[in-house]
Amino acid sequence: MSLFEVGRVCVKKAGREAGRFCVIVDLIDKNYVLVTGPKQLTGVRRRRVNIDHLEITKHKINISKGADDDEVVKALNESTLLKIFQGRKK
User: What is the pTM of this model?
Assistant: First the structure.
């Protein structure tokens, strides 16, 4: 089982969004995943990211593969991680 799975909460380590939380919404291949902040919460827009640029956290939310930003926000509300996400926005 891979640590990179749909719903896993990560922190970006590289790029202009470094230090911000994001959620994996899809697995593209062995090197890339699709993440979202969502942008209105953390400033991380939906994009393809190299897994070497992500730091995995212990948190995971229940979302479906390819979930839209509204579904991610709803899952974050249910898991009480929303306050953590809003606190890291720059």
Answer: 0.89
